## 1
Amino acid sequence: MQQRYFGNTGLKVSVLGFGAGHVGAESLSEDQAGTLLNRAVDRGVTLVDTARGYGLSEERIGRHLSYRRHDFILSSKGGYGAEGADDWTPPAIRRGIEQALTRMRVDWIDIFHLHSCPLETLRRDDLLSALDEARQAGLIRVAAYSGENDALAWAVASGRFGSIETSVNLADQHSAHSVLPRARERGLGVIAKRPIANAVWQFEERPAGQYAETYWERLHQLDLNGVREQAGLDWAEFALRFTAYQPNVHSAIVGTANIANLERNVRIIQEGPLRLDVLTQIEAAWERTGKTWPGEV
Ligand SMILES: NC(=O)c1ccc[n+]([C@@H]2O[C@H](COP(=O)([O-])OP(=O)(O)OC[C@H]3O[C@@H](n4cnc5c(N)ncnc54)[C@H](OP(=O)(O)O)[C@@H]3O)[C@@H](O)[C@H]2O)c1
C-alpha cells in the first residue's frame, strides 16, 4: 500500500484510508468491528478516520485497535458532544479531545478536525486558540477542518490548519477544482471523504430522503456509464481510482462494514490512476453538467 507525505505535517498516510463511520453501527458485532479495523491496518490501510458523532466508532477503536497505536494514523473530529460542555465552545474542544483520548485509549490524536461547523463558527478565535493549545499540549498533532465550500476555502486561506477533509468523488468535484490546488500550494494535508459517492450506483431507484440522494441524481445527470463501460471497469473501481489519484488528494477514506469490500478496495488501489482519456471524458462531463454544483457535507 502506497504511503504518502500528508502535506507538510510530517505525517505519512496510506492512499486508501479507512472511513470508520460504519464501524460505529450497533448492527455490527464487536467481533466484526474488530476484524474490520485490524484487517485494514494489516493491509497497510493506516489512516483511520472517525468522529465523536459516529456511534460506537471511537470506543471500538479503543477496544480493538489502540493496542497497536504505532501502526496507524488516527483522525477524529469534534467540537460538539463533549460531556460537561456546550457545543462549539473552547471547553467543548479541550474536554472533547480529552474524552476522545479516553474513549479511544490513546495518548494522542494525529489529526483532529472541527467537524462541519459553518463559517461563522470556524472563524471564532476562541475555538481556534483552543485547538492550538491542544496541539501545543501534545494531545493532537495536526489541527484540521472538515467541511465544504466557503468554510473550507476560508480554512485553507486562514493558515490556522495543517490539513482538511472534504468530499471528493465523481459526483462532488467542487473542492477538487476550487479549493484543493490552494491547499496543496500551502502544504496542507488533504483527506477525501465520501470517495466513492456512497456507492449510489447500487440503488436502482432514487434513494429518496437518504444521505446519498443528491449523489444519485448527480451521477445520473453526469451520464458516465458509457465512459465507465468503455474503460472496462465496474463502478467501485471507476469511482475509487478517480478519487484516490486526484493530484491534490493524499488519502481516500472509503467507508465499509464489509470485509470483502475492504479487500477489494485494497486490490483496486494497486491499479493506479484511471487512463488519461477516461479522465478527460469525466472532466468534460463535469464541465458540461456539474461545475456549478456545491460540495456536499
Ligand atoms: N467529515 C464529514 O462530515 C464526513 C461525512 C461523510 C463521510 N465522512 C468520512 O468518510 C468516510 C467514507 O464516507 P462514506 O462512508 O459516507 O462514503 P463512501 O466511502 O463514498 O461510500 C461508502 C459506501 O460504499 C460501499 N462500499 C465500499 N466499498 C465498496 C466496494 N468495493 N464495492 C461496492 N460498495 C462499496 C459501502 O458499503 P459496504 O459497507 O457494504 O461496503 C458504503 O455503503 C466515512 O466513514 C467517514 O470517515 C466524513
## 2
Amino acid sequence: MKAKIISNSCVKGPCYKLLLKPLNPVKSVPGQFLMIRPGASDGPSDPLLPRPFSIHRATTDDHIEVLYKRVGKGTAILASLSAEGELEILGPLGNGFVFDGVAAAKEVVVVAGGIGVAPMLGLVETLRAGYPEKEIRVFLGGRGEVDLLCVEELKAVSTEVILATNDGTMGFKGYVTEALEKHLSQSLITHHSSLVTPIIYACGPSPMLQRISEITEPLRIESYFSLEANMACGIGLCMGCAIRSRDGKGYYLVCTDGPVFRGESVDLSGNPPQSPFNKGGD
Ligand SMILES: Cc1cc2nc3c(=O)[nH]c(=O)nc-3n(C[C@H](O)[C@H](O)[C@H](O)COP(=O)(O)OP(=O)(O)OC[C@H]3O[C@@H](n4cnc5c(N)ncnc54)[C@H](O)[C@@H]3O)c2cc1C
Ligand code: FES
C-alpha cells in the first residue's frame, strides 16, 4: 500500500520521526509494526528488502507516526526523503501488546532502551486512556542523554518517568535495569503482604530484555517483550526472523507470532534456532 509522507524530520541525534498518511486507513494496536520499503515508491528497489518499524503512534485522523534511528543504508535513505513523497508500506503486522493482566496488577512498569521507546509511547497512551487510575511507571534508558527520546510525552501520560544513562549525563547513572531492580525490590517489600505484583512491558536491546527476565522470573512477574529480528518478508514466509522458544514450541517467528512475547516463552540468548523446520512442538 502507498502512504504519503506528511513530514520526516530529525528529532534528536540520529533519530527521526516520520508522519505518514496511508492511502487506505490503517487500524492498529500498540506493538504492531509496518514493513517499509526505504526508497520513494516510484524509485529503485535498493536496498531490495523492506525494513520493519514499530507503529510509534496511530492518530485519530488515520495518520501513522514512525520513530526511527538511522543505523544503515535503509534508514539513511528513509532519513533523506522529504515531505510530499510516497512510500510503499505493508501493515499493520504482528500481534501487539495484550492488556489482560493490567487490571489486577499493582502497577504497570514500562521499560524502554534507546530506540526501543518507539512502540512504548503509544502503549503508555493507550494504557492511560484505558486505565486512568493505574500507576504507570516508565523506565527509560540509554547510553547517554541523546538516546533518551519522548521524555516529555511520556511524562504527560505516566505517573513517573525514571531516566537512566550509562554515562550519567541524565538521570540515574547506570543501566536502566539497575534502576528497575531497585524500584522492584522497594515496591515488593512495601507490598509483600498483598502478593500483588506489577506487570511489565519492555522493548530494547536483547541484553536489556534478558536482564529483565533474570530479575522478574524469580519474582513471577508477568512480563511482555517486544522483540527485534532480521526480517525479509514480515508475513511468515522467509523464516528470517525465527527465535528459539523456551516453552517447548521449537521456535517462533517474530513477525507473525510476535513481535510481542511473554518474557518466559522466548530464548533471548541470541543463539539462532537449529532448524527452521521444527516449528510447532518439536
Ligand atoms: C518488529 C520490529 C520493529 C522495529 N521497530 C523499529 C522502530 O520503531 N524504530 C527503529 O529505528 N528501528 C526499528 N526496528 C529496527 C529496524 O528494522 C532496523 O534498524 C532497520 O531495519 C535497519 O535498516 P538499515 O537498512 O538502516 O540497516 P542495515 O543496513 O540493515 O544494517 C546496518 C547496520 O546496522 C545494524 N543494525 C541493524 N538494525 C539495528 C538496530 N535496530 N540497532 C542497531 N544497529 C542495527 C546492522 O547490524 C548493521 O551493522 C524494528 C525491528 C523490528 C523487527
Ligand atoms: S520476516 Fe519473514 S518469516 Fe518473519
